[in-house]
Amino acid sequence: MFRKPTGAILCPRCGRLTHPDAVECLVCGLQRPGRWHWASGLGRLWRTGSFTGLVTVACVALYVLSLLLDPTSSLRPRGPFDLFSPSSRALLDLGMTGAIPWRNGAWWTLVTAIYLHGSLLHILFNVLWIRQLGPAVEELYGPARLVLVFTVSGVLGFVASNALGVPFTVGASGSIFGLLGAMVAYGRRRGGAFGAMVLRQYGQWALVLFVLGFFMSGVNNLAHTGGFIGGFVAGLVLSLSERREETAGERLLATAVIGITALSFVLALWTAFVG
Predict the structure, then answer these.
(1) What is the rounded average pLDDT of the residues 43-47?
(2) Residue 273: which pLDDT band, with cuts at 50, 70 and 90?
(3) How confident is the model at residue 215 (pLDDT cuts 50, 70, 90)?
(4) Per residue in 220-240, pLDDT tens?
(5) Of 58, 154, 206, 271, which has the highest C-beta tally within 10 A?
(6) Contact between 162 and 211 (Cβ < 8 Å)
(7) How many CA atoms lie within 13 A of 121 on its CB side?
(8) One domain for residues 16 and 81
């Protein structure tokens, strides 16, 4: 993997052909691209992968698993919107977060709870928004930055709600508001007619969802607020792909985030069923 490459290589930053001994890439200016040839495979992964599809599969699979862990409870709805709702015990086993788990040192629940949902309506609503917003953020920012925005905003949303005393919570809505925040940040930084259009459309969506959250029971508005702020700040910090392509470092960081997510679920299952 780390042997010296021979012949032509693909620049890890821009994907164009260059020489492994070149002082810099003639297309994007990356210094000594041969040093970073190990990252070319990682770059191909992020150019062809679909994080939105991966999130969708993970959410659906974990929702089904949460029902199977306690099937009798899921068939005893407490109200008309609670049909096929996982039990609290099942969600705790899979990594539900909140002030109580957080106080007990279960830091990994800040990540695992993003992919868990409390009812059929909950997961349908969130998955539809993820599939609407994920490709839009990926197109404007890039796939690796999508991973970072989605995860960071979801975690910050739960940090806010846990710190302010919400006892238990699950759901990807903090990440969804983070995606909206990133789009609003893009519109502000981009400017012009296109930036104004993005800002208006996604800003209106964020406002409508914020308002609806206060009229629906059981909605974690603190996580929505924290997620939106996290996504907005991340959108301002991350360079726009129109101005600078994703770097090998950003792709490596996104890969590490996915690895931390997988590790978090291992810790959740280990704590619930082994520890």
Answers:
(1) 52
(2) confident
(3) confident
(4) 999 999 999 999 999 998 866
(5) 154
(6) no
(7) 9
(8) no
Does 173 participate in catalysis according to the annotation?
A: yes
pLDDT at 77: 61
Choose the catalytic residue: 74, 119, 173, 175: 173
Q: How many residues does the chain have?
A: 275
Give the CATH number of the domain where residue 245 resides.
1.20.1540.10
User: What's the distance, CA 87 to chain centroid?
Assistant: 25
Clarify whether residues 80 and 167 are in a common domain: yes
% of the chain exceeding 90 in pLDDT: 62
Query: Among the options 224, 239, 241, 264, which is catalytic?
Result: 224
Report the mean per-residue pLDDT for the chain: 86
Residues forming beta bridges with residue 223, ordered by sequence position: none
- Whether 224 sits among the annotated catalytic residues: the reply is yes
In angstroms, the CA 13 to CA 7 distance is: 18
Per-residue pLDDT for 123 more than 80? yes
- Say yes or no: 154 and 243 in one domain: yes
Q: Which domain holds residue 27?
A: 9-38
Give alpha helix (H) positions in the chain: 40-48, 51-69, 71-74, 88-94, 99-103, 109-112, 120-141, 143-163, 173-190, 192-213, 221-237, 248-273
- Give whole-number Cα distances, 109 to 95, 101, 154, 174, in Å: 5, 8, 11, 14
Of the candidates 28, 249, 247, which has an alpha carbon nearest to the alpha carbon of residue 18?
28
Q: Is residue 122 scored above 80 in pLDDT?
A: yes
What pLDDT does 20 receive?
Answer: 73
CB 167 within 8 A of CB 99: yes
185 within 8 A of 231, measured Cβ to Cβ: yes
Question: Cβ-count burial of 135 within 10 angstroms (0-12 exposed, 13-18 middle, 19+ buried)?
Answer: middle
